[in-house]
């Protein structure tokens, strides 16, 4: 096996994206910032393309946000200490060395990038896809759920939902329009759900995303009002650190609660499971990479929970297919905004017939147009 030779920035570019309305934790401050795009809300306004190269000339690439790249620069001197096969060792070292200012956020995003680059490079060295390295394929294809249905004119929302039905989707996720700062929020949100349910019926699994925008009192009232629509889950109703709120909420409502997009490593997910959250949604590009994803899978199984990762990026797809379908039943497919995670990739997996199929190329099996 070969040592990691370098970790370097090769280019950068700005991210621009259409504005789609949905609830956000900053809804209280709309008079200051107005409505922003999903990329801007997620602080993905500039991305940097990063290359890892081994002493044997194997190259791997990934895109990260500009703040994550700056953090990577600070820890890059440690990355060169490892053989590309020493994935678990490198992860543990980087987690421990960054503890004074890490444990979540930028530090874990940076560790995620290193972890994914190492998995890609090592799998290329072995000549196998990553999913074979981390457990092998458990199925020929991955079920996808259509994820968009942002608030819009009634006729547009109806047309979009009908389109997903025609495409063969049996699982969908919508966004809501109003949070506690709006006195008419409950009625506005119920109207959106009714519009979609009237189109898709009750044989479709319909979930709804509040993206960290509620407080406990409003969440309880809102979710109880939504129960008549038989939703598959309610996503991220509370702030990520409100584990006590999650614990109280899951005991009081009938709809399953999901969370994890903005949580880190195994410890946060243990807290979520203890709080009664039964659908975990980590993202390999944020949570720390594939290494903690596999640990979280075992943790979820021990609680009888499932993992439906945030965003159907290539890294999450390799993780999903390496775990039993009972644990990772499906992948999210962001149908209308993918520009913040797939720039310059020439062979992005697309959901066809509501299914993803992965190739068997070495590494994560993706190629960039600048290679």
UniProtKB/TrEMBL annotation:
Name what cofactor the protein needs: Mg(2+)
Q: Is Metal-binding there in the keyword field?
A: yes
Using the record's annotation, list all stretches that form the Mandelate racemase/muconate lactonizing enzyme C-terminal domain.
Answer: 154-256
Tell me the GO molecular function terms.
L-rhamnonate dehydratase activity; magnesium ion binding
Q: Which UniProt keywords apply?
A: Magnesium, Metal-binding
* UniProt cross-references to SUPFAM superfamilies, sorted A to Z: Enolase C-terminal domain-like (SSF51604), Enolase N-terminal domain-like (SSF54826)
Query: Superkingdom of the source?
Result: Archaea
Quote the Gene3D superfamilies the UniProt record gives: Enolase-like C-terminal domain, Enolase-like, N-terminal domain
Does the record carry Ribonucleoprotein as a key word?
A: no
GO BP, one annotated term: carbohydrate catabolic process
Quote any Pfam family the record assigns: MR_MLE_N
What is the protein's given name? Starvation-sensing protein rspA related protein
Q: Which organism is it from?
A: Thermoplasma acidophilum (strain ATCC 25905 / DSM 1728 / JCM 9062 / NBRC 15155 / AMRC-C165)
């Amino acid at each position: 096996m070969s040592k990691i030779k370098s970790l370097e920035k090769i280019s950068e570019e700005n991210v621009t994206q259409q504005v789609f309305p949905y609830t956000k934790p900053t809804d209280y401050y709309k008079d200051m910032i107005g409505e922003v795009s999903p990329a801007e809300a997620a602080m993905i306004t500039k991305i940097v393309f990063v290359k890892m190269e081994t002493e044997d000339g194997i190259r791997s690439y990934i895109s990260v946000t500009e703040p994550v790249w700056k953090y990577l620069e600070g820890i890059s001197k440690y990355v060169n200490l490892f053989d590309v096969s020493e994935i678990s060792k490198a992860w543990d070292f980087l987690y421990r060395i960054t503890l004074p200012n890490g444990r979540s956020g930028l530090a874990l995003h940076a560790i995620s990038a290193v972890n994914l680059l190492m998995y890609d490079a090592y799998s290329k060295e072995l000549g196998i896809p990553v999913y074979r390295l981390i457990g092998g394929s458990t199925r020929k294809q991955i079920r996808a759920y259509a994820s968009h249905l942002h608030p819009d004119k009634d006729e547009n929302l109806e047309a979009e939902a009908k389109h997903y039905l025609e495409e063969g989707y049996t699982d969908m996720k919508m966004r809501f329009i109003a949070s506690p700062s709006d006195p008419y929020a409950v009625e506005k949100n119920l109207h959106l759900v009714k519009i979609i349910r009237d189109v898709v019926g009750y044989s479709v699994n319909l979930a709804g995303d509040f993206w960290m925008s509620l407080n406990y009192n409003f969440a309880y009232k809102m979710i109880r009002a939504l129960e008549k629509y038989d939703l598959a889950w309610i996503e991220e109703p509370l702030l990520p650190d409100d584990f006590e709120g999650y614990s109280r909420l899951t005991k009081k409502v009938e709809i399953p609660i999901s969370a994890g997009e903005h949580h880190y490593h195994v410890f946060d997910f243990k807290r979520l499971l203890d709080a009664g959250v039964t659908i975990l949604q980590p993202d390999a590009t944020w949570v720390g990479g594939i290494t903690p994803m596999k640990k979280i899978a075992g943790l979820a199984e021990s609680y009888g929970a499932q993992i439906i990762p945030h965003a159907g990026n290539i890294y999450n797809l390799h993780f999903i297919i390496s775990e039993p379908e009972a644990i990772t039943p499906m992948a999210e497919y962001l149908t209308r905004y993918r520009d913040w995670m797939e720039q310059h990739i020439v062979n992005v997996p697309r959901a066809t017939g509501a299914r993803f199929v992965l190739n068997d190329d070495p590494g994560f099996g993706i190629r960039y147009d600048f290679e």
